[in-house]
Amino acid sequence: MSPTDVLNELGKHDILSTDQQAKLADYERARLFSVHWELRSMLYLGILLVSSGLGLLVYDHFDQIGHTALLVAIAAGCVASYGFAWRYRPKWTTAQTQSRSTFGDYALILACLLFLTLEGYAQYQYNLFGTRYGLATLLPALLFLPLAYRFDHRGVVGMGLTALISWVGVTVRPLELYFKTNFFNQKTVFSAILLSLVLIGVAFLLKQRRVKAHFTDTYLTIASNLLMVALLGGLFNFDEWRIGFAFGLLSACLMLDQYARREQSFLFLLMSVVYGYIGVTYLFYHYIHPQGDTAYYWYFILTGIGVVYYLISQLPKRDTPHESL
Amino acid sequence: MKAYNEQWIYNREIVGQAERWYQKQMLTDAQITAVRRAYPVNFRQTNGFLEIGLFLFTTVAILACYLLPASVYSTLFSDQITYGVFNIAFGAGVGLVGRWLINRRLFYRNGVDNAFVVMLTGFLAFGANQFLPNGLSVATHCLFTLPLLLIVLWYYGDTLIAFFTIAVFYAFVFDGLLKFSWGNEVLPFVMMAVSGLLYLLARKPDFILSQPTIRSSYYTDPLNLAQWLSLIVLAASGNYFMVRELNRLLLKPRPQLAPEIMWPGLFWFLTFAIPTLYLWQGLQKKDRMLIILGVLSWIGAVITFHEYKALVPLNTALTIGGLTLIGIAVGGIQLLRSPKNGFMDAPDDDSPDEFFIHTETIAAIQAAAGTHPDAKHGVRFGGGDFGGGGSEGKY
User: What does the pLDDT read at residue B239?
Assistant: First the structure.
């Protein structure tokens, strides 16, 4: 349905005066076509390709190109990008701000990606960190998180948190939709749980103090997923701790559910319900392990309907006199 | 007559447009209130994430309801006819319950109703196909199933059903052509022609619908989806890489390397001409869909060229390609700082802000994770414990 159709329709109901109809028609006719997001998507795609290309270049050709020359070139690109971002940095504030240049945010993310390439190359070629592999992931975290706050860049917050999570041995690649992590290792599971709790605590503390409060959801999305997956990993793999993990999972789900409803942020409600359902289903299987399939089907019927009913009750309210129960 | 209240769907679009004008302060408070009163929309509200959860768990419950009698009465699987009747009966039951819920709870794409529609269609289609004799071709099954899908699509206007309908239609055309000895060679051209026709029909729904304004509102999303899919298939059907690799997959015995295809020059031309046409028409008509698909299919064309005529190694190609995209984007942003020829860089109310913000974060994380040195690079063997099971202790 075009705006013209709507104009005609509203005109028929006398909601709009003739003058106003003409004015709106002129507005729609003269309206400019925005390609804002298309251009920025293209810019992002370009940055990702350059980063990937240079990454491959490093590992494919380090024998043929002079090591120092390559290192210097990438470092120069990295410094230049930081320099550009810094030159147009926003004035410091705890509220939300933007770079004073259209390209400042993109220069910053390119700088961060080049830094990772640089660090990877230095480790690969010069064994910069020796056997202290944790430092290779901790360093980007310590660099990116302050930068994210200084430049107010949500994407760089995500990169910093990802680096921090890698530091405890968890690999996070959202587009692959799984954690490539050894959750059979108790130390990794407890490290992941501890880190996620710290991050959640930090997120709420910063939110309470209104320091870049708009970053809170990024923290919570990443840290909560980490927490939930770690708790499920523990639930599945460590018999002696199962009750503890079950209780932890229950607490985490209740916390997420409460936050979701208070903030009307339904991603967290979905996380709470799905992860909780997986945990409960595992416990049902493990402890009840009924004979025959019938009980399983009844379990899924009753719990499925129950969850659906609960989620329906969370749908945003609207004045609906026509609805009957 | 249809599953959802058509008037409310129509009203929803009017109110949506009015609200956009209201946000631009071109309508007064009184006027927007009058619009909302004159055009009531009484569907239950929704939220994207809740929709996902509702769809997921409704599907779980329905499938469990299906499997319960199947496990108790194993005779339901005894022969194809009985199995077919059971599936159709169950599908009809799902349809009735879904319809009842839609009417009582005023659902409209809340996830629950979508799950019921998809399950209904799945069971009916599966059940009906049990009545066909064994050994029939994929094309025959697709053709047999299409009328059912079209009826469900007409009744519900569901986007997922639209996707399945289009997929089944394309599968019918594709598999049907392979029956002929010359099918392989004409396949790309038929797919392009069919896609072109589908796109035209989706752009001008008046050909197949009466009362265009109120009824086309019911099918806005399916028609949009049909446009996207037909344009994608059209571009893919003319792409040299797709044609050559698909030809290899269809040959028997399958060769290790894809042999040269007939009319290679024509397909190289189409590989670049179709994206150019999309981009040109997209910019000319200010059509966002054509602009986006034009850029993406141009990228696909360049990737295709690199695949067969690699002038530089992959790492260099990626870097050059990335720099080119950055250059075009930066140039475009600079050029459109002040609007030109009806285009501007400033975001408007059509822009999907929130989606982009999430995409930005995910893209950054994905890229960063891919670049990270592996923290477990120096993993050492030994020292592990076995947990649970029969054995215990260190190894």
Answer: 94
Contact B94, B122 (CB under 8 A): no
ipTM, 2 dp: 0.84
- Evaluate if residue A94 carries a pLDDT over 50: yes
Mode of pairing for the β-strands spanning A33-34 and B343-344: parallel
Of A148, A152, A160, the residue nearest A96 (C-alpha): A152
- Nearest residue of chain A to residue B39 (CA atoms): A10
Task: Enumerate the residues of chain A whose CB falls inside 8 A of the CB of residue B354.
Answer: none
Helix (H) or strand (E) run with residue B94 in it: helix B80-105
Do residues B216 and B209 lie in contact, with contact meaning Cβ atoms separated by under 8 Å?
A: yes
Pairwise CA distance, residues A157 & A153, whole Å: 7
> Would you call A53 and B315 a contact, using CB atoms and an 8 Å cutoff?
yes
- 3-state helix, strand, coil split of chain A in percent (to 5) is 75, 0, 25
Tokens describing residue B374: 């592996």
The chain B residue lying nearest A35, using CA atoms, is B345
* Residues whose CB is less than 8 angstroms from the CB of residue A4 and which lie 6 or more positions away in sequence, other chains included: A25, A28
The tokens for A289 are 């392990």
HSE (side-chain half, CA atoms, 13 Å) at B221: 14
Output the pLDDT for position A19: 81
* pLDDT score of B89: 94
CA distance B96 to B331: 57
Q: How far apart are CA B263 and CA B255, in angstroms?
A: 19
Alpha-carbon gap, residue B323 to A43, rounded angstroms: 9
Instruction: Round to whole Å and give the CA distance between B179 and B216.
Output: 37
Residue with tokens 């169950």: B90
Residues of A in contact with B17 (CB under 8 A): 1, 3, 6
> Reduced to 3 states, what is the DSSP secondary structure of residue A208?
helix
Q: Note whether A305 and A313 are within 8 A (CB).
A: no
More confident: B360 or A292: A292
* Coil vs helix vs strand at B344: strand
Write the pLDDT tens digit of every residue in A172-216.
655 554 555 667 778 888 888 999 999 999 999 999 998 888 888
Tell if the CB–CB gap between B64 and A166 is shorter than 8 Å: no
- B158/B141 Cα distance (integer angstroms): 22
In this complex, do B315 and A174 lie within 8 Å of one another by their Cβ atoms?
Answer: no
User: Dihedrals φ, ψ of A172, to 5°?
Assistant: -120, 115
Contact A183, A234 (CB under 8 A): yes
Tell me which H or E stretch contains A310. helix A294-313
Helix axes B138-156, B159-177, angle to 10 degrees: 160
Cis-peptide into B264, omega within 30 deg:
no
Could you say which of A38, A51, A273 has the minimum Cβ distance to residue B371?
A51
Among all chains, which residue has been given the structure tokens 């055309």?
A: B173
Which residues from A are below 8 Å from B357, CB to CB? 154
User: Is A172 in Cβ contact with B369 (below 8 Å)?
Assistant: yes
In which residue are the tokens 């469900």 written?
B152
